[in-house]
Model the fold of this input.
Amino acid sequence: MKISIITPTFNSKNTIEENINSILFQTHHDWEQIIIDNESSDNTVNLVKKYNNNKIRIICEKDKGIFDAINKGISNSQGEIISVLHSDDFFSDKNTLTNVINSFQTSEVDVVYGNLVYVKKSNRDKIFRYWKSNNFTKGLFYLGWSPPHPSFFVKKKIYEKFGNYRIEFGNSSDFELMFRLLEKNQVSSKYVNKILVTMRYGGASNKNISNIIKQNLTIFKILGIEKKYFDIIKLVYFKLKDRLKQFFTKPNNNV
Done:
């Protein structure tokens, strides 16, 4: 099974090589990387082109944000499986793609997701937050649950059936997509209890308090609970409880 890895970039010269190298070192070799660059003004494009690898394609053009870029990548993809790996992120282990493909093949599901760790931008070797997910059951999204988006692998036919990212939801477009697939349409899924992706903390959705508040207000609308105050309180309580746990739980080996 071929995996298409979509990577939006904008002035990503400091991290894009680590991102690409984490893909090149994978034990599963049937992949392509589609880099959608939003007219970077630094050395990002030159760094990508120096690899001179026909499995790595770069499209340079203005976009309307990260999820618009991802949608372009999906439209240009040739693989059966879609992965989104942001330019600040990298696969945590050389067997990440092998583990994902094995789960798709043995379970015959349409979505596979796993765990994620956060590291600081200044020190990629120091884990300070561990997002351990779990099996999905209906109703979990209303309790503040969602899979870590960078660990979320989806068959391309599912995008073709249920649609791509809805960019009108801004930084919450990833949450809306996962909610639409798992909760609303009950797409079959498999949870892999392994760390699949390492993410540098400080992305667009969590870089300041204002962004976090806006994102949560949008999530209330996506869930249809913006006027249901008891449901909002319940969601916020469980979400805070879960997020705080992520800072105190330590990963055991690679699970």
The two ends are 24 Å apart (CA to CA). The chain has a mean pLDDT of 94. Residues 126 and 197 are 14 Å apart (CA to CA). The helical segments are 16-24, 44-49, 66-75, 96-107, 156-162, 173-184, 209-223, 229-248.
